[in-house]
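User: Fold this; C-alpha cells only.

Assistant: Input:
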Amino acid sequence: MLILGHGAVEGLLAGRERELIDLVADAYTAHDEGRTSLPHSVFLRFPDRPKDRIIGLPAYLGASAAADGEQGGEDVAGMKWIASFPDNVASGLQRASAAILLNSLKNGHPEALIEASMISARRTAASAALGARLLLGDRRPTGVTLVGCGVINREVLRFLAADRPELTDLTLYDSDPERARCFARDNARLLPGVKVRRRDRLDEALADHDLVSFATTAATPHTGLAACPPSAVVLHVSLRDLTVPAILGAHNVVDDVDHVCRERTSVHLAEQETGGRDFIEAGVGALLRGRAVLRPAPGRPLVFSPFGLGVLDLALARFVHDKARRCGIGTVVSDFLPARAL
C-alpha cells in the first residue's frame, strides 16, 4: 500500500494546470465514449447536523493517452470519500477534507491511499476552466467575477489564469466581506498585474464581467442572472446558487445529465418544475467529441453546471500515483494486507 500525504500530492500537481485540464478533458471524453463506470455518489448526512455531509464517489476510468503524448496509466478504479463541514471555516480549518482509495484491477486489493483535498479542488477547477473554454469559444474576456472567496474559487482563478492569460481584471464578492478582503490579499497574485475590485452587492459583481464563477456553500437558489452582461458565461460550480428561472433562461451544459439532476441542484429543481430535461443542451463529453454543438442565442447566458464526477478524481489520482511510484515518493506499508489468504 502506497500512502501519499497532502504535501506530496501538492508537489506532484504544482505548476501543471494545463496538463490537468487536458487530463480532465480526456476523462470526460472517456465517459462519453462509455469507457467508464460511474455509480451515483452516496451522500451521508446526519440527523442533527443538516449542514454537514460526507460523500462517497466510486468510479472506474479506462486507460487513455496522457496529456504529454505518452501512454496514460492503466485502467483505474477507486473511491473518493470527501467530507464537507462548513463550520470548519470559522475555526480556521478547511471546509472540505478528502481521501482517495485506489484498488488494483488485477486482484481488487487496495494499493494506494491518497490525501485528496488538493486533487478534489484542482479537478473541480480544471473542469471549470475546460467549461470556460467550451462555452466562450472564440471570445476572450479580460475579466472574471468570482462569487464566493474560498478554496475552490482560488483554484478556479489559478486554472483560469494559466489557461486564459488575457485576464487582467478580477471582481470579488462574498457574503462575508472579510473573506473577500483576505482573498484579494492572498490570491490576486495568481493573475499578474491584475486590477481587483471588491463588490458589496452581488448584482454589481455580476455586472462587471462576461465570465463568472460561483463557488459558494449555498444550499438553496438565491440569485438570477439578469444583472450579468449579455451572453455571459457562468461557471456554476457550487450548483445551487441559480434560481429555476435563471436556469431555464440560459443555455445549459452539464457534465452528466443523470448525475446533475439529483440532490436538489438548481438543474434538478428545474427538471422537477418542468417535468423534463429539454432545457439541458449538451454534455461536456459530447461537445469535446463533436457530437453536440452550441449555437447560443444573442443575449442569452451560458451556464456550465458540473456535478463533479468521480472519474475526474481518478484521472488526477492515477496521475499522482504513477508519478509518485516513478519518483519514489510516499510511504509504502508492506504489511497492510494479510500475508496469505484467510
